[in-house]
């Protein structure tokens, strides 16, 4: 956990990453043993890997063709249709306009204002988390949708550290239904989301489908740690998850 993460607005945020197979967002932002510990692997207290959500249904077998009927000698031949059946024109599918990459997050109710890092996955499959000089910044997981695209955009942030004290999402658990979250984007536009739920889950019972599953419209997930610190590990035992939808 010694490598720092590049800040948003630099070369990393200029690219639009391809969709990564969604890995569980491991935001273990802990205080323990005098050291801030950020976790990314499921065997180290992080959230589990989301299962594939798409299912392919089997197509029914086509019906066997009926045997041909031979007309008798006295039967007049059937009249051929005089006009070919009309075919309705196919309307082209209109693609959604591209959404600019996120660069900042603001949560007025808890006085949060932060640039957004763009973080992905490490080679071992664990999630990158803010480190070093970027420890107190929030981060958008670039394997999730961009805020404003259909689906759940995921933003993570530390809760605190022994060395630094409270971090960017220290007061996340105090948000209320109806509070708003604003995500600024690199084209100057702002996506506004309204909180509709906030829940606390044990890390070994992370709600994978609720967090990463498909949604009807653009949504947002804010994740940090919470609960109590386990004495044997020095780590928080829960995750705080805020659910919000675009308004």
List the helices and strands and how they pair.
Layout (H helix, E strand, L loop, with lengths): L10 H4 L13 E5 L2 E5 L62 E6 L4 E8 L18 E4 L9 E6 L3 E2 L3 E2 L13 E6 L4 E13 L5 H5 L5 E13 L4 E12 L1
Parallel strand pairs: 4-5, 6-11
Antiparallel strand pairs: 1-2, 3-4, 3-9, 5-6, 7-8, 9-10, 10-12, 11-12
Describe what you observe in this structure:
The chain contains two helices and twelve strands; from the N terminus they run αββββββββββαββ. It has 247 residues and is mostly beta strands. Strands 3-4-5-6-11-12-10-9 form an eight-stranded mixed β-barrel. The chain is globular. The relative contact order is 0.23.
Summarize it.
The protein is mainly β. Helix content is 4%, strand content 33%.
**Low-confidence sequence ranges:** 1-75
How much is the average pLDDT? 74
Radius of gyration, in Å, reads 26 Å
Helix fraction, binned, reads: under 10%
N to C succession of SSEs: HEEEEEEEEEEHEE
Count up the helices.
2
Strand order of the largest sheet: 3-4-5-6-11-12-10-9
Shape: globular
User: How many strand units?
Assistant: 12
For the termini, the CA-CA separation is 37 Å
The main pleated sheet reads as: 8 strands, mixed, barrel
List keywords for this structure.
247 residues, mainly beta, disordered N terminus
């Amino acid at each position: 956990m010694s490598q720092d993460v590049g800040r948003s607005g630099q070369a990393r945020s200029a690219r639009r990453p391809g969709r990564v197979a969604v890995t569980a967002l491991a935001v273990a932002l802990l205080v323990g043993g005098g050291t801030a510990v950020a976790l990314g692997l499921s065997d180290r207290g992080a959230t589990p890997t989301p299962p594939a959500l798409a299912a392919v249904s089997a197509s029914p077998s086509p019906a066997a063709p009926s045997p041909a009927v031979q007309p008798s000698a006295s039967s007049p031949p059937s009249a051929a249709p005089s006009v070919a059946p009309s075919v309705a024109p196919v309307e082209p599918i209109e693609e959604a306009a591209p959404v600019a990459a996120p660069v900042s997050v603001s949560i007025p109710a808890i006085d949060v204002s932060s640039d957004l890092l763009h973080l992905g996955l490490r080679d071992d499959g664990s999630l990158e988390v803010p480190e070093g000089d970027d420890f107190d910044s929030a981060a958008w997981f670039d394997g999730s949708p961009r805020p404003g695209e259909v689906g759940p955009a995921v933003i993570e942030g530390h809760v605190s550290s022994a060395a630094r004290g409270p971090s960017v999402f220290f007061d996340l658990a105090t948000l209320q239904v109806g509070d708003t979250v604003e995500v600024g984007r690199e084209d100057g536009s702002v996506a506004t989301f309204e909180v509709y739920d906030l829940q606390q889950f044990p890390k070994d019972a992370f709600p994978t489908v609720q967090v990463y599953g498909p949604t009807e419209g653009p949504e947002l997930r804010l994740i940090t740690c919470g609960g109590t610190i386990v004495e044997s590990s020095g780590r928080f035992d829960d995750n705080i998850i805020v659910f919000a939808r675009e308004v």
